[in-house]
Specification:
alpha+beta, Peroxisomal Thiolase, Chain A, domain 1, globular
């Protein structure tokens, strides 16, 4: 088996940063009224700026595939050119199409050469699953290199226009024309962007990160769905797919909106995160002292203290000086968030050879968790 190194990392964040008070200028107002949830959600999540692939008129400026391709182009120079890439592995929870897959659309944007392509679907863990596919390919010698990416373009899913038909339907039914909190909540949580890494079987340049191991854990066998789109949740906790609804209800019930069961989120996201983190650390005999930086993907600063306390109670307390986050500045970019954190850390000048980094990514969709342990070389 080969060693696998992250030798390059690049990002692409579209347009100018968007401040909290500007969000409704981009996303619009549902029923021409300011959201009652917006201020509460923003106060808890701690995000101050984020990026949208939109103009202020709500016109898209980039597709998800274009965002990803722009990040990947940042990996290329005279030493590593597009023709040198052997594998492309991309993860996202907001592909531009149901089909073709996201990664083949990115490949089409790059237009570089014939190569293997892999698409990882899902939610936040999709970016880590894309990374693991590339890691395993290089490790077993199937390819000498792999480009792996995580990205999102959620802004176009959150435009007010997508919800107005439901509001009109509620008015016709003489019901309160207010969009449910499980939909409105996520309009103030999610943002756009992409980042990519180059994996190779040998270290290159002044700074490389060796991937020691990667692990994943799913709790779907015991927990119901928490975050979903293209479906609606029934009283028994199951979700009904969009294809089983009459097409007119796709609009009148905002079936394709991203929704989250916030009660389930609050009850399980930290508990299962602590449980899976301890499983990964115990399996590989890693202690808190073996971690110099932890990069936890959190959707909201609301969860940070609870996660820290949970680790401490489980005997895996990682002191706060080791925590590295950039949620406040770039927002929650789902499958791209851990890549964006790692890019900022690698560019910070803080890393020293021999240090160890833990990547932690939770996914609330049906409670999945992914981890990677890296050594600075």
């Amino acid at each position: 088996m080969n060693e696998v190194y992250i030798n390059r990392i690049a990002k692409f964040l579209p347009n100018a940063p968007v401040a909290n008070e500007e969000m409704e200028q981009y996303l619009g107002k549902i029923n021409d009224k300011e959201s009652k949830a917006r201020r509460i959600v923003l106060r808890n999540n701690g995000i101050q700026t984020r990026y949208y692939a939109l103009t202020k008129e709500g016109i898209p400026t980039h597709t998800n595939a274009q965002l990803t391709a722009e990040a990947i182009r940042g990996l290329f120079d005279e030493k590593f050119q597009p023709k040198d890439a052997e594998l492309l592995s991309c993860g996202t929870s907001s592909p531009d199409f149901l089909m073709p897959s996201h990664a083949v659309m990115v490949h089409g944007e790059l237009g570089n050469r014939n190569m293997e392509v892999n698409s990882a679907s899902g939610n936040c863990c999709a970016g880590m699953n894309a990374l693991k596919f590339g890691y395993m390919s290089v490790k077993c010698g199937n390819t000498k290199n792999a480009i792996c990416a995580g990205s999102e373009r959620m802004s176009s899913w959150m435009l007010a226009d997508h919800f107005n038909k439901e509001v009109e339907n509620l008015k016709e039914l003489e019901e309160q024309p207010i969009i449910a909190f499980n939909k409105d909540f996520l309009r103030w949580m999610l943002s756009d962007g992409a980042a990519a890494v180059l994996l190779e079987d040998k270290p290159q340049g002044e700074l490389s990160l060796r991937i020691e191991w990667m692990e994943g854990y799913s709790y779907a066998y015991e927990l119901e769905t928490c975050m979903y789109a293209g479906a609606d949740k029934l009283e028994d906790g199951t979700i009904k797919p969009f294809s089983d609804y009459p097409s007119e209800e796709w609009l009148t019930k905002s079936i394709f909106a991203v929704k989250q069961d916030t009660k389930l989120l609050d009850k399980y996201i930290l508990a299962k995160g602590v449980d899976s983190m301890k499983k990964a650390m115990d399996k590989h005999q890693v202690t808190p002292e073996d971690i110099d930086y932890i990069l936890p993907h959190v959707s909201s600063h609301y969860f940070v203290d609870g996660l820290y306390d949970g680790f401490a109670k489980a005997g895996i307390e990682i002191t706060r000086d080791k925590w590295f986050l950039n949620l406040k500045d770039v927002g929650n970019v789902g499958a791209g968030s851990v890549y964006l954190m790692l890019e900022q850390l690698m560019s910070s000048g803080k890393l020293k050879k021999g240090q160890r980094i833990m990547l932690c990514v939770p996914e609330s969709a049906r409670f999945t968790y992914a981890y990677a342990y890296l050594t600075v070389c």
